[in-house]
Amino acid sequence: MNLLLKQQLLLTVRALYFCMENQWAEIGKEYDISPAQQHILFLLSTNRNELTPSKIGELGCWHASTVTRLLKRLENNGYIDVRAKENQARYKLVSMTDKGKYVLENIFKTVKSMEQFPFDLRQLSEDEVVHFINYGKKILDVHKGESFMRDVISKPMKDLDYA
Predict the structure, then answer these.
(1) Is 37 inside a domain boundary?
(2) Would 161 be classed as within a structural domain?
(3) Which domain holds residue 27?
(4) How far is CA 6 from CA 2, 110, 145, in A?
(5) Which of 31, 37, 43, 151 is 20 to 30 A from residue 145's alpha carbon, by CA?
(6) Is 90 contained in some domain?
(7) Which segments constitute the HTH marR-type domain (predicted)?
């Protein structure tokens, strides 16, 4: 692939990410929660509401220090509990509180009601969107692997109506 094509790919993906990130940030303002913190609640909701900080880092693509900082704020806001793992006090388990579940459900309802979220895709057919998603999945599969695809990309949130 030539350098100009690589540059265009990089800048396009980066610009799409920032457009989406800005929308997530706007939605989160009502609950004082960042897009990354919203993602942690999502990860918990798709993984039986219990993950270790290291697994959160792996699934969220964050460094351990970033996870620690994000979890601290979520815990201070009452959205998660962090406790020692049974019989292994050195390991921690993170779970979502009822308050965290409430916030995530409301964020989900807001997103579901927004016709143009995460992007205004009216200029694309459904088939084009499906192709775009499939291209992204091919790239992610190479870089993140099958378990990431299974545990993050293809996993629905528990008890939420996607229809």
Answers:
(1) yes
(2) no
(3) 3-153
(4) 6, 35, 22
(5) 37
(6) yes
(7) 2-141
Mutual angle of helices 98-113 and 3-29, in 10-degree steps: 120
pTM for the model stands at 0.86
Cβ atoms of 148 and 61 within 8 Å: the answer is no
What is the distance between the alpha carbons of residues 103 and 96, in angstroms, rounded to a whole number? 10
Contact 97, 80 (CB under 8 A): yes
In this structure, are residues 52 and 93 in contact, taking their beta carbons and an 8 Å threshold?
yes
CATH value at residue 61: 1.10.10.10
Cβ neighbour number for residue 148 with a 10 Å cutoff = 16
How far is the C-alpha of 120 from the C-alpha of 108, rounded, in Å? Answer: 18
**Helix runs in 30-149, H state only:** 35-45, 53-60, 64-76, 98-113, 126-144, 146-148
Amino acid identity of residue 97, one-letter, is T
State the pLDDT confidence band at 118, using cuts at 50, 70 and 90: confident
Nearest CA-CA partner of 49 in 95, 91, 83, 81: 95
Q: How many residues comprise the chain?
A: 163
Mean pLDDT of the residues in the chain: 91
* Residue the block writes with tokens 């143009």: 116
Question: What is the mean pLDDT of the segment spanning 29-41?
Answer: 95
Q: 95: helix, coil or strand?
A: strand
